[in-house]
Amino acid sequence: MALARTASSKADLYSLLVRELQALVGVETDWLANLANAAALLYDQLPGLNWAGFYLYKDGELVLGPFQGRPACVRIRPGQGVCGTAFSRRETVVVPDVHHFPGHIACDPLSRSEIVVPIVVSAGEGGGESEEGKKDWVAGVLDLDSPEPGRFDAVDARGLEEFVRRLIPHVDWQQATGAFVSQPGH
Length: 186
Description:
By secondary structure, the protein is of the alpha+beta class. The protein has one domain: GAF domain (Beta-Lactamase, 2-Layer Sandwich), CATH 3.30.450.40. The chain is 34% helix and 23% strand. It has helices at 2-6, 10-25, 31-45, 81-89, 154-167, 173-177, and strands spanning 51-58, 61-69, 75-76, 93-95, 113-122, 136-146. A hairpin with a 2-residue loop joins β1 (51-58) and β2 (61-69). It is globular, with a radius of gyration of 15 Å. It starts with a helix and ends in a 9-residue tail after the last helix. The model has no long low-confidence stretch (mean pLDDT 90).
């Protein structure tokens, strides 16, 4: 967690993480390698995590992608749990105590707080257009868990949203998620 020790604030830590991400994925074109390194970077450099990774939207559900941590739930339906909720709402969800989140999916009973950032891909970023002609779609989510209650806040949300924005152009989301499938309600 060298970056955490050199950062002057949590916001500064996220700026350093984004720079490190750019260095890792800047010239790499393999989507799997880039998602794997992004998950490893977050897990290695953010204090207080017990899981960091991606769920990718495939065939109408979120399917486990590259991650760091304990084995995880493999499939999550849109609208189900924290990941499915963030996916369906198309907005970041911060949960200070997962035991108070209705419908929380307990993949790891040690997790107490969670943050999930949807990965909204535009047509110009390898996403194409949906069948309804929409210009963006949710390719999946970034999910971070912590054994510490209240671990995540608005600074984490902003930092992770920027992290995802910088990652999006470095992943072939069509390939990562398979053929584009129309998302209900979007």
